[in-house]
Q: What sequence folds into this?
């Protein structure tokens, strides 16, 4: 099946720093990518929908200036958590769509902000 | 009302039994659905995509879609301890892919 690569797998950073997470579709072109956040024992929460070449669409309650999403090509989307704080510590997961029937997830990034 | 609702469980079944997982949705316009499995600490993996009313089978998994009643279910035959995970459903025909809360399945030996 299609592969979506996400890295880093985990990152520890100091409060106030910024962290960039990359999501790549390795063997298909993804016009749409989704970014999710998941807290322990909770479900996936959609943060934003990213379309190649256009601005991301953020879900209500998600700060677009804090969570910067760039989808510059059909195979790469990035999420930058700016000025991270301990409450941003979470599991971040991207997914990429290869047509309506196929949506594949990256392996996720565990972010810990100290 | 949430777009997608699932019983959070846990649903406990003995090894070898059939596990039945259900998902109801509110948008009558939803035409097709995903079922994903997520192990603790891992990202979801695709199990099934279904778009037609009725059943779709893939190995030990059978997805059932009933658009009139607005529910989609997943049956797992011959359940194994390795099937213990959280199962997520989501309608696939929206611009934003919203998942249900997931049902935690526990298969005990």
A:
């Amino acid at each position: 099946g299609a592969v979506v690569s996400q890295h880093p797998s985990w990152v520890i950073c100091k409060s106030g720093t910024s962290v960039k997470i990359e999501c790549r579709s390795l063997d298909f072109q993804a016009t749409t990518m989704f970014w999710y956040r998941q807290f322990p024992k909770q479900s996936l929460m959609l943060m934003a929908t990213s379309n190649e070449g256009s601005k991301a669409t953020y879900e209500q309650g998600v700060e677009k200036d804090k969570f910067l999403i760039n989808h510059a090509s059909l195979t790469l989307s990035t999420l930058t958590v700016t000025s991270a704080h301990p409450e941003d510590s979470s599991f971040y997961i991207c997914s990429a769509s290869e047509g309506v029937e196929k949506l594949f997830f990256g392996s996720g990034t565990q972010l810990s902000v100290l | 009302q949430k777009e997608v609702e699932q019983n959070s469980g846990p649903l406990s079944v003995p090894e070898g039994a059939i596990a039945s997982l259900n998902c109801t949705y509110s948008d009558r316009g939803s035409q097709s659905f995903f079922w994903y499995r997520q192990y603790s600490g891992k990202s979801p993996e695709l199990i099934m995509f279904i778009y037609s009313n009725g059943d779709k089978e893939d190995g030990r998994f059978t997805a059932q879609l009933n658009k009139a009643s607005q529910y989609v279910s997943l049956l797992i035959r011959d359940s194994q301890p390795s099937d213990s995970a959280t199962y997520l459903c989501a309608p696939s025909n929206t611009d934003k892919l919203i998942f249900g809360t997931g049902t935690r399945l526990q298969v005990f030996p």
Summary: The two ends of chain B are 37 Å apart (CA to CA). Chain B touches chain A through 22 residues (CB under 8 Å). Strands of chain B lie at 4-5, 11-14, 19-25, 33-38, 45-50, 54-58, 61-66, 71-76, 85-91, 103-108. Chain B has a mean pLDDT of 91.
